[in-house]
Write a structure and sequence with these properties.
The structure is a homodimer of 199-residue chains. With 199 residues, the first copy, chain A, is α/β, with parallel strands linked by helices. Chain A contains eight helices and six strands, in the order H-H-H-E-E-H-E-H-E-H-E-H-E-H. Chain A has two domains: 49 residues, RecR Domain 1 (Helicase, Ruva Protein, domain 3, Orthogonal Bundle); 132 residues, Dna Topoisomerase Vi A Subunit, Chain: A, domain 2, CATH 3.40.1360. In chain A, helix 1 packs across helix 2. The model of chain A has no long low-confidence stretch (mean pLDDT 91).
């Protein structure tokens, strides 16, 4: 490339996941068509996001303050906590508007392959919160990968120390809009065995 | 979203072409897994690129200096100029390593629909360069869209004032790896009429 500045911009953009050099070049050339002020806003937003973002000291969710808006919201049901793998999962569940309890973001799943052990996740904080806040139900909303199932099993074992706390997992089955023909055997098996009465 | 900082980062990222809110969110959450210093490098590279980049005062190509490396390169053939629509086209042609002349970047094509008239393009600069530098051949390497053909026609008319300058366009035909079955009629018609002898 002719320009070191362009080369650097393309190099940095192509470090982003799913963005190759071709796309990075297209994005960089697009930025040239925008006002300098607009590009600075983009750059500032990214830098400030990374530098200033905090994690809620109760639930480990992303937050601008020490306590996130969900934990600070007095109208939410403080007797239920929904345990999720990552920040994006909180947004997905919030978007459904079907849940009004608290969350707990683990920050990953147990993965020996990637060197992530239980101590790398916010599991102790979860147990502390349950004890401190009088939680009555823990919903484990963790993905059904091998790592996810391992994490689920590990946490449910640790939760046995609270015999009065109900532990649930999100429902497994055929998704809405999915065809049975294309679902995997495990899912179909689970869906048949755990069939629900229509009436 | 719970965090204004996240909201801003996602908002700015989703202004980029081909990046929707879902992808923007994925990119933003990815940035959280990187070091602060790395994210700052990305932000700086984008801002510096947009703020400090120049256009070569001869050929209008992107450049870190007033004259781009291609125009400044004494080993290039200064009797030929290849006229292209945009900066990316220079890179595409350079990548082939089949061309050793100069370039001229128009900065777009004539498009009444988008309000781009000939005076918005660097056509006068091209004519000046041809006169000043003793150009012997002008290669018009412009895309075959309606706007491209209009621009090609317009420039070739303006070039009639230089009767000694040869004007060519890049070869049209069936691309390598393309199947004739899937080529459009215009291309096939052109390829048949302008067939080349094998020997």
């Amino acid at each position: 490339m002719n320009s070191r500045l362009l080369e650097q911009a393309v190099g940095e953009l192509s470090k982003l996941p799913g963005i190759g050099r071709r796309t990075a070049l297209r994005l960089a050339l697009h930025l040239l068509t925008r006002e300098k002020e607009e590009v600075r806003q983009l750059a500032d937003a990214l830098d400030r996001f990374r530098t200033d973002i905090k994690h809620c000291s109760y639930c480990n969710n992303l937050s601008d303050k020490d306590i996130c808006p969900i934990c600070a919201d007095a109208s939410r049901d403080r007797s239920v906590v929904c345990v999720v793998e990552q920040v994006g999962d909180v947004m997905s569940i919030e978007n459904t508007r079907q849940y009004n309890g608290l969350y707990h973001v683990l920050g990953g799943v147990i993965s020996p392959m990637q060197g992530i052990s239980p101590s790398d996740l916010k599991i102790d904080l979860l147990l502390e919160n349950i004890q401190r806040q009088g939680i009555k139900e823990v919903i484990l909303a963790i993905g059904t990968t091998v790592e996810g199932e391992t994490t689920l099993f590990y946490i449910s074992r640790r939760l046995q120390q609270f015999p009065d706390v109900k532990v649930t997992t999100i429902a497994r089955g055929i998704g809405f809009g999915d065809e049975i023909e294309y679902a995997d055997e495990l899912t179909i098996a689970h869906a048949i065995v755990n069939r629900t009465a229509l009436k």
